[in-house]
Amino acid sequence: MNHHPSYRVGQTRWSVTIATYVALVVASTIYVYPFLIQLGTSFKTDEDATAHPLNPLPQTWTTNAFHELAQVDFPRWFLNSVVVAVLVTVGRVFFDSLAGYALARLHFRGRSALFGAIVAVMAVPSVVLLIPKFLVLNQLGIYNTYTGMIVPLVTDAAGVFIMKQFFESIPPSVEEAAHIDGAGPFRTFWSVTLPMSRPALITLTILSFQGSWNELAHFVVSRDKPSLNTLTSGVATLVSGTLGKGNEFPLKLAAALLMTIPVAVLFFIFQRYIMRSAEGAVKE
Amino acid sequence: MSVDSPAGAGNVAAAQGAGRVRPLGRPRRSGGGGGGIRGREGIAGWIFTTPVIVLIVMFLAVPILMALWVSFSNWTGIGSPFSGDVKFVGVRNYKFLLGEDGLSRQNLMQSLRNNFYYVLLVVPLQTSLALFLAVIVSRRRLVGRGFFRTAFYFPSVTSSVAIVIIFQFLFSGSGAINAIISALGKHGPDWLSEQQGLVHVVLDRLGVHTAPAWLANHYVLGQSWWEWLAGPSGAMVVLILLAVWTTAGTFMLLFVAALQNIPSEIEEAAITDGASSWQRFRMITLPMLRPTLLLVLTLGLISTWQTFDAQYLLGGALANPSIVTPAYLSYTTSFSNQQWGQGAAISFILFVIIIVLAAFQRWVLRDRDDELLKRQERRQAKEMRAARKASA
User: Fold this and answer.
1) Distance from the CA of A270 to the CA of which of A146, A183, B28, B114 falls in 20 to 30 A?
2) pTM for the whole structure
3) Looking at the domain that runs over A72-240, which CATH code has it been given?
4) CB-CB under 8 Å, A211 with B1
5) Looking at this predicted complex, what is its ipTM?
6) Using an 8 Å Cβ cutoff, are B192 and B168 in contact?
7) Looking at residues A66-81, what average pLDDT do you find?
């Protein structure tokens, strides 16, 4: 039965290859072109944006949108986002690795029950916590404060999980020398195991920064003071067009562009870590 | 962690996936080891985990209990929900939402209907697009693989706010999509203002202008069959496309990783046997991707029931009821209408829906890891017992 002529295989390969590249070009156009339109339109005038929505090149270049953004507190939002994202990231990375280490390495009563609880927490859908979170922040008197915006976001069961998994992949024997020297658990964790965990720490740092930078819902329910707007909640007020006059698409798109730049830079530098963390989900 | 935004899907996927890998290597240290060190370890263990425990209790457990109380109370947002003026009202809030004909139930049912059509279209579309993209970027000897993967994945790391703005522009009355439609000689609508269900629109084109009586006069949970079967509105279709476009890249990476796990010998053997590429995909690739496929489908199922960001961003300006989802409805009911009891109750109804779906996920995936791992663990334990017996 083995009479398949080899030229047929070659033929299908060619047609499939051409079809693949055509599909890739079409798909990547659908993915990249909207961003090109965004980039170009932020340098357009309102009229130009309305008249030539498909052309990413402005008829006349203008940086009006960016000047206007400076007027609407954009720098303040940016600063708030930086403060929140940096503190949330530092908090998450430190507390998650501490807890992950304990769950992976230290033997204590109730460890598996605690681990079970953390897995259960990961299953709680965050969106049903919107009202509950407001209630607790209100009750504690930290509604409309940086504390209320930052501390709840440090809660991160998934991060504990990622760190636990990673620490378990490090052989316990590397800690033996430290044990013999009489180093306590924290010393061993801090100066032996943690320095060996760079890949996991980088992954968690990026996920945390990206997550808190892009977070919107929590800043909707944890504050209503305009001066506490982050980029997401601040730019959200532009989407609904509260500024009036015209559609202001160049302004909105410029704001969207500026808020994307920090995560985009991080993404391009640490791309393989981000991609690997997503791929890790499937690896056996 | 933001689970609700499309961008968050990757984190959940990573975490959930990580959870599926249980290390089998190191057996638990059994008792009898030096008591002093173990005692110190025990204290350290609790100290190390205390910050995380405190955070989870304060910002997850306690809030849920508070909201549960509020959902059974008549709190109107003034003062503390635990003050003496706030009364326990039993299941009244739930009754308004589920059992009694009125505005509350009508709004909730419409939001459930909207969300249902959203899930119905987003989940299959994002899964098949992700699989398609994964297959084409995984081809051997591909020029520009890095560029294509980056292009498809990039929306996943972008803020939902930025994505919504881009889509608002593309689908505005004078936007790019309508420019393409006009170039084809048709006239596009103002997409985000469209409220009529697509099924109704199509029937209208076909000459069915009023609902047939057998659909219009039979009601389920306060809505007629005609309304239940309306389909997603034009505005919702835009949000569906937005979700598919944004999340496909995340799921593509899951499929790419799974494709890499398929041994190339199998593919080569199939080629030698003269199988066409479609046959190879259908008979080899797809069955071997089954676990990942189920993971992606159920992750999609859970995250699409939580959609909030786009509704919040567009909801205020548009006042378009056809895009409201339960998550957004619970927000407006509480924060805008000050009906905190009902808002909290909607959250819990949504919670139940999602938990049921999560249980469904576990059930669907059970044969893959749990049983396999249990079997493996049993075998390991048996081997260890045997080894111990032999050494004793």
Assistant:
1) A146
2) 0.86
3) 1.10.3720.10
4) yes
5) 0.90
6) yes
7) 93
